[in-house]
Design goal:
The complex is a heterodimer. Chain A is of the alpha/beta class. Chain A has helices at about 5-25, 30-35, 40-50, 70-80, 120-135, 155-165, 185-190, 195-200, 215-225, 260-270; strands spanning about 65, 140-145, 170-175, 180, 185, 205-210, 230-235. Chain A has a single domain, classed as Rossmann fold (3-Layer(aba) Sandwich). The longest helix of chain A has 22 residues, at about 5-25. The termini of chain B are far apart. In chain B, the strands form 2 sheets. A 7-stranded mixed β-sheet of chain B has the order 2-1-3-4-6-5-10, with helices on both faces. Chain B has a 5-stranded mixed β-sheet with strand order 7-9-8-11-12, sandwiched between helices. The chains are: A alpha/beta, B alpha/beta.
Chain lengths: ~270, ~300
């Protein structure tokens, strides 16, 4: 159980409110898969990762690659709350001239370690960063977050094979296993299940947790770091749209923006 | 100097580069003996990474290395490096302007016997259309070595197009390659022959054929197709009043298209393109294929006469 659980819960709540309000202001974006990952991002940036907002390119930092790049709002909100850039910037999401592009752009946003958006690409990049850190014997850990629908991309399994082959025990991947993708339930569209057995067969250390439980996230990362000679995947069971009643478990909220009334209702529920 | 394949010169250059730049890492996709990255692996095994037959992950991993400050050279056959991993090149390398060098071998018809499935004739067009990408096609082994060194110094993605067969060494030891600069190899007054890659040699031969008929042809080596040396191309068109391009690539989207764009906007003159005329290749010996698809000195000379007649 993390000592700061109350603080983490408060941060996750603020991040959820940011996600809903910035997507509402942008009138477009991906709330469902952003809300499902709020605890994972909160825990990584506020408890786990060795990063310095004043020096975002610090060489020995831990890295985070948002392979499911459409969940940019949860990353932006987390980075802003951590101090990488002003929280007020969040309201410029997806607007012309903003550094907060629809999908993460490492050239524009302090703290974004890799540009992503095309699914599967971030996972390979994370393995490349982890290989470079391994080569230089750096202390850094590389974290990445994939969607469960994203596992349908062939590139994911190419990267999974190479990460295990190169024994990347500095690489810790999360799967945001919310069970839904744009066209519906992942099992109806094209089932990636069983996710845990697939990664195990590829030579990964595998854990399955409740992705909204800070204690389980903490324990899983600890266990992943204790594992040597293989990369770790943490399959996080989550609820798409978590925290906003009308969005929860609704595939339709994958890529739709709430209107002003819906934003107000969400704020009330999140408070 | 003996004939040498540009891929062989690439392998030798990588091994030399490894000694002078410890940020260089080399990645391959199970073709290291053919792409010649094996030459680097032999001396710097700890900085060599075989990603297996998985080109998307090859280019994606290279992007990660670059994001962590390394200078990755990623190699495969051109048809796979560009064809299978276009999205990774676009979104993971070029969009974030990462410092990845894509050295693709076995480009063009001269792959030979493997046939049309393996003869990449669209890669210049594809790579030229991607923002931030520098596109270089060395003419011979001498230029290839300099291109590899210049690419390592250049900040940003570079696509280097290399070939399979041994080709004549055309350029002398005093040749100086510079990214974005074309080089006039022969002065002339009646027509300018602009070649890239192995077709530079053919253009030189064509100039000799034309000289025998009393025609004075200038020959320009355009190894950097992007950024293109617009000033030199315009100047040569103004001087000679006619242009023929020659490339081992589809006539759509490659050197010929790039030169046409410059001329139309700056100095419209009669122009013709020698290249593969929107066809796939087939199995055969490299020289047989070049002959069959019109990538010959004779065809360049014939087109030169045709554009001169249009002046």
């Amino acid at each position: 159980m993390p000592v700061n659980e109350q603080m983490l819960k408060e941060q996750a709540k603020e991040i959820r409110k940011d996600i809903v309000s910035m997507i509402g202001a942008a009138k477009s974006g991906h709330p469902g898969g952003s809300l499902s990952a709020a605890e994972i991002l909160t825990y990584l940036y506020f408890e786990e990762m060795n990063v310095n907002p004043a020096e975002p390119k610090w060489e020995d930092r831990d890295r985070f690659v948002l392979s499911k790049g459409h969940a940019a709002p949860v990353l932006y909100a987390t980075l802003a709350r951590k101090g990488f850039f002003p929280v007020e910037d969040l309201m410029s999401l997806r607007k012309i001239g903003s550094h907060l592009q629809g999908h993460p752009d490492m050239k524009k946003v302090p703290g974004v370690d890799m540009s992503t958006g095309s699914l599967g690409t971030g996972f390979s990049a994370a393995t490349g960063i982890a290989l470079a850190c391994q080569l230089d014997k750096k202390p850094s850990y590389v974290y990445t977050l994939l969607g469960d629908g994203e596992l349908q991309e062939g590139q994911v399994w190419e990267a999974a094979m190479s990460a295990a082959h190169y024994k990347l025990d500095n690489l810790i991947a999360f799967v945001d296993n919310n069970g839904l993708q744009i066209d519906g339930n992942i099992d109806d569209v094209l089932s990636p299940n069983p996710i845990d057995a697939k990664f195990a067969a590829f030579g990964w250390h595998v854990q399955v947790i409740d992705g909204h439980d800070f204690g389980q996230i903490a324990d899983a990362i600890k266990a992943a770091k204790a594992e040597t000679g293989k990369p770790s995947v943490i399959v996080a069971r989550t609820v798409k749209g978590k925290g906003v009643s009308y969005m929860e478990n609704q595939a339709g909220w994958h890529g739709s923006a709430p209107n002003a009334e819906q934003v107000a209702q969400a704020m009330e529920e999140l408070n | 100097m003996a004939n040498i394949a540009t891929r062989d010169a690439y392998g030798q250059a990588l091994a030399e580069l490894g000694a002078i730049n410890d940020k260089v890492v080399v990645l391959d996709a199970d073709l290291s003996k053919s792409t010649k990255t094996n030459d680097f692996k032999k001396v710097y095994p700890e900085r060599f990474f075989n990603l297996g037959i998985a080109e998307q992950n090859l280019l994606g991993t290279a992007a990660g290395f670059a994001a962590a400050g390394k200078i990755p050279f990623a190699s495969s056959f051109a048809v796979f490096a560009v064809g299978r991993a276009y999205d990774q090149i676009r979104n993971s390398i070029a969009y974030p302007n990462l410092n990845v060098k894509i050295a693709a071998t076995h480009a063009g018809l001269t792959v030979g016997e493997d046939g049309g499935s393996h003869q990449m004739l669209e890669d210049i067009a594809l790579m030229r259309a991607v923002p931030n990408m520098t596109v270089i096609v060395p003419a011979d082994g001498v230029e290839t070595k300099q291109v590899v060194m210049a690419a390592a110094e250049h900040q940003g993605p570079v696509y280097i197009r290399l070939g399979r067969p041994k080709v004549p060494v055309l350029l002398g030891d005093d040749y100086k390659f510079e990214i974005g600069k074309g080089v006039v190899l022969k002065e002339g007054t009646d027509v300018t022959l602009i070649g890239t890659g192995i077709m530079v040699s053919k253009a030189m031969e064509a100039a000799e054929l034309l000289a025998a008929d009393g025609i004075s042809a200038a020959v320009v080596n355009i190894s950097t197709i992007k950024p293109l040396d617009n000033a030199l191309i315009t100047e040569m068109a103004q001087k000679t009043g006619a242009v023929v391009t020659a490339e081992e690539h589809n006539i759509y989207g490659g050197l010929g298209s790039a030169v046409a764009e410059v001329l139309v906007e700056n100095c419209p003159v009669p122009m013709a393109r020698v290249g593969v005329e929107d066809k796939f290749g087939e199995s055969g010996l490299p020289d047989e294929l070049l002959e069959k698809y019109g990538l010959t000195a004779a065809n360049i000379a014939a087109k030169a006469k045709a554009v001169i007649a249009k002046k």
